[in-house]
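Async update (no meeting this week)

Hi team, since we skipped the sync, here's where things stand on the single-chain job. The sequence we agreed to prioritize is pasted below, unchanged from the tracker. I ran it this morning and attached the output directly underneath so nobody has to dig for it. Comments welcome in thread, and please keep replies under the output.
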Amino acid sequence: MTDTVLLCDCLGSQRIDRAGLEAGSGRPCSEVGTHLCGRQIGRVAEALAAGTPVTVACEQERATFEALAADLDVDPPALVDLRDRAGWSDDPRDVTPKQAALLADAALAPPAARVMDVESGGTCLVLGAADTALPAAERLSGTLAVTCLLTDAADPPDTRDFDVIHGRLRRATGSLGRFEVAIDGFRQVVAGGRGGFDLTAPRDGAVSACDVIVDLTGGAPLFPAPEKREGYLRADPGRPAAVFDALWEASQLTGTFEQPLWVALEPAICAHSRARQTGCTRCLDACPTGAITPDGDHVAVDPHVCAGCGACSALCPSGAISFDAPPVAHTMRRISTLARTYRQAGGAAPRLLIHDDGHGREMIDLLARHGAGLPADVIPMALPALAAFGHAEALAARASGFCDVSLLLSPRSDRATLAQEAELACAIDGPAALRLLDVADPDALPEALGAAAAPAPDPMLPMGSRRQVARMAAKALAAEPVTPLPDHAPYGAVLVDPDACTLCMACVPHCPSGALADNPDRPQLLFQEEACLQCGLCETICPEDAIRLEPRMNSSDDALSQQVLNEEEPFHCVECGTPFGVRSTIERITEKLSGKHAMFANPQAVRLIGMCDDCRVKSQMHDGMLSGPPKPLPRTSADYGQPEDAVVLPKRGKKRKV
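Output:
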């Protein structure tokens, strides 16, 4: 069912071209209003009451429109911001292509996110010194089941509204609803006797579980990336406002919550390790929360601990881990739609600005309301996880027709991952591929964006996996078919020293992507560069130290076919003439063992070295260690001195019941 877009020029403060937006975006638009959130709100009510889907081109008054829908007992309208991101701008150029692109992007509904339920019963552990932790525990005791772990030697209070213990927190694991703690020097209150409460004797190794942890110690956090650990609330005890915020948030963490499953995992194509030899560790090194751990030859992701930063998706060379909220394919589709719609609406050279929903959106809103606004050719695109926007997405944007791609960093951005991916994208395409903008002042954003860094390339449709998209984009954008890349790149060649390689093929079965292969008919080591992940397993496993890696992007068709890295003449079986093995290896082994080893003192034993598997088995059966005396012939009655026609009576036995 086609929806209707309700347009508003916000009291005449922005330019709106209804016909241009309809033609460019392909979405039917209403007559342009001037105050839909006020005196013209009846238009919105009329559209909502009609029963057809409605999109209002205003996000500022979300609460107003949602309240109106609730009064009418209908679904709330969808919202798209054309004013702050495109309408309010000092740029005199036409903003219709940009607004049309934003309208088309808003029509792309992401797939429903996968979620899991997280249960929290409200069991809370408060940590800290008595002067801070006890008042906090008392405040929370009305809504949560609180245990207060005092880190100093203060006496327990005369209250049983919450439990008080002493000890040293040795270990904490888990997340909201499933924390587990280990405490040394554990002492708990003895609830009885006259006077103040006594404490039990200390003991080590006490283990308990809780749903929420409030850390008021002011020391080192209990977990890596503590702000990303659900259910772990940490505040400086010297800042009462921060403590109050932490306590209020803790009081809300009771019940059933939906936890998004941020990433999708395909263990079969993971290149972490083979045969207990470690290869790729990119996701393990980048995960800020420790949610990714080795699991045999693959990795495992703890969905309870994963915070959805997206770094693993951008860095994974094989696509074994991919961001899934929304999926990578949806992000690629959005990029392509923005570029295509901008051109359809009359634009020529768009530029893409990636930002997050928090810091980045606020920066753009402030720039629009109080500053110059974004340039007319800069299209903003919000993402839930900035680190998930890697080199493949940036190259897809360039190949879709964007002049350049910029990413606005937020205070909590994973700068290391983004810098690495930007370096890789720029090595393939040039400085326009991905620029990182570290700007704190909204008014400085237009200057940081500058002018277009490159002309708009001929557009193409990005299709396939991230690796396939990156290769297609490199073929369209790169000046040379072979481009050197940084050491961390997931693309490249395998170089083999033919003088050191013995064609033992130890590298072939350990290659996780099948880039290395052998020829069943000849002693040849084959390599397909397009499939190589540069995981380093072949280099690690090679017993002759004959393999080196060369990071590079080869966008020529040669990378799609198998190339011979090393080959030798086969040895022909001395019995049947069948080619097998490597001639140089067989001759070298024969020379080293012939007459120099007790097992090969016999010429016939030496001859076994030059036989194929079938002939070697036959020789061993007849003349070697498997040979033996002739098989005895079956005996007859004649062998026992009885005539051949003698009748042999059966032995007597007990009759069996039928």
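Quick observations from my side:
The chain is about 30% helix and 20% strand.
The first helix runs from residue 18 to 25.
Reply here if anything looks off.
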